Amino acid sequence: MIIDRYKIREQNETLVLSTIIHNASISRAHISQLTGLNKASTSAIVKDLIDESLVIEIGTGDSTSVGGRRPIQLSLNKNAGFSLSIDLGYDYISSMLTNLNGEIIAEFKEKNFYVRKDNVIEKIKQTIRSYETYYLDCKFRLIGVTLAIHGIVDQEDIIFTPYYDLDQIDLAFELQQALDMPVYVENEANLTALAETSFSTNKLNLVSVSIHSGIGAGIIINGELYHGRNGHSGEVGHMILYPHGVACPCGNKGCLEQYCSEKAILQQYRLLKADDTRTLYDLAEDYDAGDKDVITFIEKAAHEISIGIRNIISGFAPGVVYINSPLTRKLPFLLTLINNCIRSKFSKEVPILTSEIGATASLLGAAVLNLQNFFNIPHLHFSEEPLEKLTPVL
Q1: Where is the signal peptide (predicted)?
Q2: Does CATH place domain 201-359 in 2.40.40.10?
Q3: CA-to-CA distance for 168 and 163, rounded, in angstroms?
Q4: Which homologous superfamily does the CATH classification assign to the domain defined by 82-192+362-375?
């Protein structure tokens, strides 16, 4: 097979850039050693990356045991451009600006903003303008905007959104036309999974269960985000729990998220207490105080959530399951109850953990998606531990 030499050069440039990104400070000689590229090729590629403002020299390292010149150290030029992430919840909009190294520069959340097709584009434009002072004077300015959508997304198309009407417009296309910059649209739970695999763990197989107004799961298989047919993977909130149960906007009855999403649990708790002002903090206090009705209610919810998680584990055999939700953050006992409900041998072998990234997971995952597209690097891992298993192009 004949491979175009320019294609090889492009692949090797990506390999060198990936090595620099995954090592905070590294010399040309070490890059050559890790990638298997010869020193001349490595130096030529590094020169191009420096000329493109993607890489900078940051001083000298230690000399080797045999002495000689101290090597010049290289690093990603992390502030040469910025990424913007926007999470469109049904009643809020949150945003985050990160640099090219995935470090958070600024973030903001506006509560009680009800997202609709007729107000979302202007709100996104306004959000972008609010960050201009950070990125206007740098080389690459804003490298892209990724939108986290609470619904089914298939290759930038919003297919179904149960709690707002964004499935009625071509949001990515309209924004690209208006902004003249890359705009990506992805399912919110998928982005939380991308954040976990990029910031939390080296595991190549994981599931991130996102429990908010609905319930979704982002699935990573062999290091890749799994979308399934037409983007329908991970819609665990629409597993049917009770065939003749509560009607769901998806058209079925008895879907999981109608019983144990954050929204559903809060609604049921308020109904139980006949008080529409109750919060999750009140629920936690009632549980800790030994309120029998609340304890019974929460144990039932934990059992229902565990059914969804057991089904995920049986279907995908992940190395770990993360739960990303205000429920597990504000009701810390809930995770213990869920784990206690996981009884099967196969399920018990899989750790079920609360996400340490927390509420910013979808935004950090959106940043990863922006950076993957900008660098043309499919796997980015922002960790103190360098990734050294890289494959050279022969």
Answers
A1: none
A2: no
A3: 12
A4: ATPase, nucleotide binding domain (3.30.420.40)
